[in-house]
Amino acid sequence: MATRTVRLTQEGYDRLKATLAQEYVRLEEATRILRELTGSSDDYDDSGLEEAKQEKGRIENRIDDLEDQLARAEIIHNTDHGRVELGDRVLLRDEATSAEMRVQVVSPIEAGVLEGDVPKVSDESPLGRAIIGRNVGETAEVTIGANAKRYTIVEVNEPQVA
Hints:
Blueprint: E1 6-8, H1 10-40, H2 47-71, E2 73-75, E3 89-94, E4 100-106, E5 114-115, E6 118-122, H3 126-131, E7 139-144, E8 147-157
Parallel strand pairs: 1-2, 4-6
Antiparallel strand pairs: 3-4, 3-8, 5-6, 7-8
Helix pairs in contact: 1-2
């Protein structure tokens, strides 16, 4: 079975690494608590011990997931100016209202995060699918349920690197 690459912006990769570091700290604390409970537990009151074991297991699973995602990560390096690609920040104009909004197109693992005033939109979402691969000046139609909106791509910027 082929390993599926996880395409991330540099910010997304850094965020995953920071989350992994936090999870390791949580694991140390959970291990310490489990040791204390194991040493002081009697056979009549093991509910706290069982909860501590389950929490430690959840943290270990989260660490495994994060390490797997980081091992499969590919940092996005865009080169095509003017064409929407994964990682780009895109300025869109609503054709009906002329209101403008800026979004960053990212992989699903990064979506939903708000950094500053730029929401991160998955390339697998209706909006992401509609604008990916389009050029500045093109119009994309996004349909969600019975609602359809048309957006013109006003500007495309590569991801900002810290």
